[in-house]
Write a structure and sequence with these properties.
2 copies of one chain form a homodimer. Chain A has 135 residues and is α+β, with helices and mostly antiparallel strands. The first copy, chain A, has a single domain, classed as Orthogonal Bundle (Arc Repressor Mutant, subunit A). The first copy, chain A, has 5 helices and 6 strands, in the order H-H-E-H-H-E-E-E-E-E-H. In chain A, the strands form 2 sheets. A 3-stranded antiparallel sheet of chain A has the order 1-3-2. In chain A, strands 5-4-6 form a 3-stranded mixed sheet. In chain A, a hairpin with a 5-residue loop joins strand 4 and strand 5. In chain A, helix 2 packs across helix 4. The N and C termini of chain A lie far apart (39 Å). Chains A and B meet through strand 5 and strand 6 of A and strand 2, strand 5 and strand 6 of B. Chain A binds a DNA duplex (25 and 25 nucleotides) through helix 2 and helix 4.
DNA sequence: TTAAGTGCAAAATCTTTGCAAATGT
DNA sequence: ACATTTGCAAAGATTTTGCACTTAA
């Protein structure tokens, strides 16, 4: 489905900024930090980016994950439930700061005490990615 | 082992602030946010708290985990490897913001692509804790 | 005594809010 | 036309840095 159609289908107005950002996220295919996105969309205001990301997350077109480096990463996901964040683990490279989706590594079940209710699970693995390993 | 002895054993100077904060963390037994700690140690400067936590983490007397609410939690752990953060999952209550150690839920093994190297793994589960469930 | 740690003030970041102008439907 | 969205400026919040003073060894 095309970007503008996906926006429309989610009851979001089709604006330049939203198309731009959703396209960037989709092209990247892995979680991106606010700053990374901003670098690729320098014509868009910082504040606008915050708000666009909010609206995309609210519309479930984008999902956010957080690494131990303290920054949120935003990841576009198709609705097939197979891509991000479909219950898989994420890897954060401590050198280049890039985050990867480990789509084949599903998050397992965990036993919780008493009457705890689960709304979300997140697995984050830290280390060095392939590329950084060779430098 | 006593707090001051543990500091000394880690080559850290035994200061009022460090004893105070390590004691607070140990008494709590679960991950605490910067603000939570500050509330219990109001005589200690914000900045000092940042620095003390840094030194404790560097000395491996304290470990930090991060929730999807964007704030770091610090958790003291005994060296028996059984308590926080000994490779177990964490639960963050979305209502009260409290984090719990799920000490009996070990983090399983995950398969990584190619030459990725792992230095750390973190599992975070979100939802409602027992107490908040009843309110 | 002297190297490390602390507290205060101030800078640097990062995120949110308010409002007028621009844009989508 | 009318409600949303955007961009700018400015407020808030959080974390870091600089530096003189204090404290542990």
């Amino acid at each position: 489905m095309k970007t503008n159609e996906r926006l429309k289908a989610s009851n979001l107005r089709v604006t330049k900024a939203r198309i731009r950002i959703l396209d960037i996220l989709e092209a990247r295919g892995m979680p991106m930090a606010h700053t990374e996105i901003l670098n690729l969309a320098q014509d868009i205001d910082r504040v606008t980016l915050y708000r666009v990301l909010d609206s995309l997350v609210a519309a479930s077109l984008v999902h956010k994950v957080q690494g131990t480096d303290g920054t949120w990463r935003f990841c576009a996901h198709e609705d097939d439930g197979q891509t991000c964040p479909g219950g898989h683990a994420h890897f954060l490279c401590e050198k280049c700061g890039q985050m990867f989706c480990l789509t084949d590594q599903k998050i397992p079940h965990f036993e919780l005490p008493n009457a705890f209710t689960v709304s979300h699970k997140q697995v984050l693995i830290l280390g060095l990615c392939d590329a950084c390993h060779h430098t």
